[in-house]
């Protein structure tokens, strides 16, 4: 059943340790290429929205960071197929989690139509996934992929259960993409209700200030340049968007505005452009 936890604070101190230290001994090195979220952010979300024995689903598992952290924390985990490039890191991260000690149950489905899905005990307490993107990606394709993933698993969640989506700031062609706003559109399209928007820090707090980590050769990376080609500040946070399945809706429901399924959602997404120069 969904956990009735008090509303968390809106800014999370999850950046005291850098990515290398967070991954060391828990995840293989290839996981560093995953920009969706960090182990500290994943653990904070799991601690906030689930308890031991709850079921967590990641429909876009990437290198398996969420699944590995979930079973390490004594949660049961369900994953859908990942991209081919993440197959080996996912298997390695899950093996490391199993070797670390007692873990929750893990089910890797071959597809959303896998017969084993009907045999899973109970419903899902938390869907947790991250939006992955590169400077060269097409925002429409990224958002449609997210919509399809949510569409596939939304009716697995308990009424009132949580769906949490993370994303990093995305600068494309010098402009910030309104990715959180477009994620809200995708969630709304599958009938989810906004519950919270939190900020998970990826840089340490020193005194009263957040200290972004220095990145070498930042001037050569297009994702860290503004519209005029000048080096912009490296993002020091991850957006954490929290949604809930309507508690009065015992089964999957779409909103009227996106009754056209994926094609209707595409028509809405392509109208959304960059947010501004930031």
CATH class: Alpha Beta
Total strand segments: 13
Topology pattern, helix = H, strand = E: EHHEHEHEEHEEEHEEEEHE
Q: Report the total helices.
A: 7
Mean pLDDT: 83
Going by CATH, what is the homologous superfamily? Vaccinia Virus protein VP39
In CATH, the topology is named Rossmann fold
Overall structural domain count: 1
Helix content, binned percent:
25-40%
Strand content: 15-25%
**What's the architecture in CATH terms?**
3-Layer(aba) Sandwich
Poorly predicted runs are 216-220, 251-261, 266-273
Shape: globular
- What is the topology, as strand order, of the major beta sheet? 1-9-12-6-5-2-3-4
Give the distance, in angstroms, between the N- and C-terminal Cα atoms.
Answer: 41 Å
Largest sheet: 8 strands, mixed
Instruction: Report the radius of gyration as a whole number of Å.
Output: 18 Å
**Class from secondary-structure proportions:** alpha/beta
